[in-house]
Amino acid sequence: MGKAAVIFKDGSMSFGERIARLHKKRQELIRPVQENPRDYVLMSVRALAEKLQTDPATVMRIVQGLGFESYKDFKAYLHELSIANATSLQGMQATSSDDSDSISHARKALEQDLQNLQVLRNTLDMERLVSVVDKIHHARSILVLGGDMAITLVEFIDYKLTLLGFPVITATTPGKTVHAARNAGKKDVVIALSFRRGLRQTVEGLQRARANGAFCVGITDTFVSPVARFANQSFLTPVEAPFSNSYVAPISFINILFTLCAHHRRARTLSILRKVDQEQRHGYRWYVG
């Protein structure tokens, strides 16, 4: 969190809003970097200046005008932007085209999942998450927002929290997101899940709910995500994969959240689970053979 706070101290500002603070000529100079951060993230000051057909001193003035204390901070920010703007095609193109090596690609995918879990383990702030759990226990309702592939995560949270007796509402379509976010208020907790650049329906639902006074929690993969910018509390869960996204780390995060919710008021949880136990032992939905 400390590093992110330094690099992204103007937390509510997008890169476009940062650029808008520059003089028009400098805006045009830096625009290619905004459009394709991946192409510039590894460049030195001198190399970037040459690419933009200007001089290093001008590049540094632009960097400072964008709100960064150093070029190192600017490069770290570009790295996050490149993550946020990555597409499945770019990931696939970055791998070998040798079709006979598919097992090697599968092993790399597994290794990346393990790395994602390790990053989550090393960076997750448990104390902040405990404070969120306390708010969940006292909330009138918990609204969970997400769309596209993140619908699977929304349903997972819904199932887990419903099991513990929490009043969960989910919104995974644009229409329901608009209505549900409009009805969220100061007594509610909103959990928004979106990765990379962020899905519009989720981000705008998050903004509307927060404007209404709801306590908003963001689950995303980079601190430059609009979900991280607009939430009261945000948690980063890597979704890096050879192509597309991997939800191994977000699912692990949800399991951690569920575990904390269960143990936060242990007596309450045990009372609920005694009833669940009867259904799991004798319920009609279980196969007997």
N-to-C series of helices and strands = HHHHHHHHHEHEHEHEHEHH
**Major sheet summary line:** 5 strands, parallel
Bin the helical content: 55-70%
Q: At CATH's second level, what is the architecture of the largest domain?
A: 3-Layer(aba) Sandwich
Total E-strand runs = 5
Q: CATH homologous superfamily of the largest domain - what is it?
A: Glucose-6-phosphate isomerase like protein, domain 1
Helix/strand-derived category reads alpha/beta
CATH class category of the largest domain: Alpha Beta
Structure report:
The structure is a single chain. Helix 4 (45-51) crosses helix 5 (56-65). The protein starts with a helix and ends in a 7-residue tail after the last helix. It folds into two domains: 2-84, Arc Repressor Mutant, subunit A, CATH 1.10.10; 121-282, Glucose-6-phosphate isomerase like protein, domain 1 (Rossmann fold, 3-Layer(aba) Sandwich). It has helices at residues 2-7, 15-19, 24-35, 45-51, 56-65, 71-84, 88-93, 102-123, 126-138, 151-163, 174-183, 200-211, 226-230, 248-264, 266-282, and strands spanning 142-145, 168-171, 189-193, 215-220, 233-236. Strand 4, helix 13 and strand 5 form a beta-alpha-beta unit. The model is unreliable at 1-9 (pLDDT under 50). The chain has a five-stranded parallel sheet, with helices on both faces. It contains 15 helices and five strands. The chain is of the alpha/beta class.
Labels describing this entry:
single chain; 289 residues; alpha/beta; Arc Repressor Mutant, subunit A; Rossmann fold; 5-stranded parallel beta sheet; 5 strands; globular
